[in-house]
Write a structure and sequence with these properties.
Layout: H1 7-11, H2 15-33, H3 51-70, H4 73-104, H5 109-119, E1 132-134, E2 137-139, H6 142-176
Antiparallel strand pairs: 1-2
C-alpha cells in the first residue's frame, strides 16, 4: 500500500473525484496482490462419481492443458484416449448406480418415482403455444387451440382407421381367392 500512487487522491478537486481515485488505487492494489480466483462449485453431490473417476478427470485436465501448450500430436492422442476412457467410465458408473437404485426401490413406489425424477431432466418445462394457424385463420385463445388440435388428431385417427379397414378388407379378399 505504501508503494501505491496516492497522488490522484491528494490532488483531486472534489470529494467525488478523491473517492473514485482512492477506490481505483485500492482496487488496483488488491487485484495485484490478491487476485480473484474462479472456483467451480457443484450444487449437488454425484454419488456415482468414484475416486478413480475423479483421478482420471484430473489427469484428463492435466493432459488437455499440456496438449494445448505443447501442440504435440502425441499429447493430443494421449488426451483423446483419456477423454474416451473417462467418458466410458462415467457412463458405466451412472448406469450401474441408477440401475442398482431402481432395483433397490422397485417395490417402493414413492422412492421409485423420486429416483426416476432424478434421472430424467425436469428443469426444462414445456412452453405453451401462443398461436396456431388453421385453415388460414390465426387462433390465439387457449381453448380454441386445444379444440383445433383435438379436431386435427380425431380426423387423423379417423383417416388411419379407414385406411386400415380398407387394407384389412383387401387382404381378406385376397386370402379368399
Amino acid at each position: 500500500m505504501h508503494e501505491a500512487s496516492w497522488e490522484k487522491v491528494y490532488t483531486s478537486l472534489t470529494v467525488d473525484e478523491a473517492w473514485n481515485a482512492f477506490a481505483d488505487t485500492l482496487n488496483t492494489t488488491a487485484e495485484k496482490h490478491a487476485p480473484l480466483a474462479t472456483k467451480r462449485v457443484r450444487a449437488e453431490s454425484l454419488p456415482w462419481l468414484t475416486c478413480e473417476i475423479r483421478e482420471l478427470m484430473r489427469k484428463l485436465d492435466f493432459h488437455h492443458k499440456r496438449a494445448q501448450k505443447q501442440k504435440s500430436s502425441d499429447e493430443w492422442i494421449k488426451y483423446k484416449e483419456l477423454r474416451n476412457k473417462t467418458t466410458r467410465l462415467i457412463r458405466n458408473a451412472k448406469q450401474d448406480y441408477y440401475s442398482n437404485l431402481i432395483e433397490e426401490n422397485k417395490k417402493k413406489s414413492s422412492k421409485s418415482w423420486k429416483t426416476l425424477k432424478s434421472v430424467i431432466c425436469t428443469k426444462y418445462k414445456t412452453s405453451t403455444i401462443g398461436s396456431i394457424e388453421t385453415d388460414g385463420d390465426v387462433i390465439q385463445e387457449r381453448k380454441e387451440i386445444s379444440q383445433s388440435f383435438a379436431k386435427y388428431f380425431c380426423t387423423a385417427i379417423s383417416k388411419l382407421r379407414q385406411r386400415m379397414t380398407s387394407e384389412i378388407g383387401r387382404a381378406s379378399c385376397r386370402e379368399r381367392v
